Amino acid sequence: MLMLVYLNMKFALVNEQRQEAQPNLFGACPACGHPMLAKCGKVRIWHWAHKGGRTCDPWWENETEWHRAWKGHFPSEWQEVVHQGHNGEKHIADVKTNQGWVLEFQHSHIKPEERQSRDSFYSKLIWIVDGTRRKRDVTQFRDAWSQGTPVGRNTFLRKVFLDDCALLREWSDSRAAVFFDFGKDLNLFCLIANGKDKLGHVFCFSRGMLINLLRGGNMQDFEALLQDARASTTARGR
Length: 238
Hints:
- There is one protein chain.
- Strands 8-9-10-11-14-15-16-13-12 form a 9-stranded mixed β-sheet, sandwiched between helices.
- Helix content is 27%, strand content 32%.
- By secondary structure, it is of the alpha+beta class.
- The chain is elongated, with a radius of gyration of 19 Å.
- β10, α2 and β11 form a beta-alpha-beta unit.
- It folds into 2 domains: 56 residues, no CATH class; 176 residues, no CATH class.
- It contains 6 helices and 16 strands.
- The termini are far apart.
């Protein structure tokens, strides 16, 4: 299936106000202040591009339709938020909620070193990973899930062999919550692992519930759920 790629950013600063691209507008990058041009053609979705084609954030990923769809679930003021670390380092978060949670939507391959840097930079981070990028991942994950062992009476939480699925294995050392998205009509699957064992835990989570919690629900419930899942991994992982 053809996946259109949208370069650069959805928002720029026009007269110090965040604004989406419109014909004949000129803006500035909210992260680096460099001039940006509004690209408003007939083929690609309208977007902002750094003048001269520069990229100010090495973590920034070219956007697909999948990225834009996920961002669209959240208020515009939460999208493409500049997050500054204690040392002054700046990066543009895909989404940052009013409760301080950062969502990073990852479609392309990411090096382990960069992923670990983001895990450390954002104290409250949730990864949403496109599980459809490689055809093999869908089949491998389905097999790992179906062959996994339910934890207690919880059929939505299963112990799985990480080696059975490249996608699980690649993300098994992330300290943040990692949700895999295998299609808009399916539930999400969250990986809980420690990067050391060949066993990890995966639990099925409603897409709508996660979005609603992030948009205004009680994130303490979400944090408690993650803690319970991690506790189950520690107690039953071996």
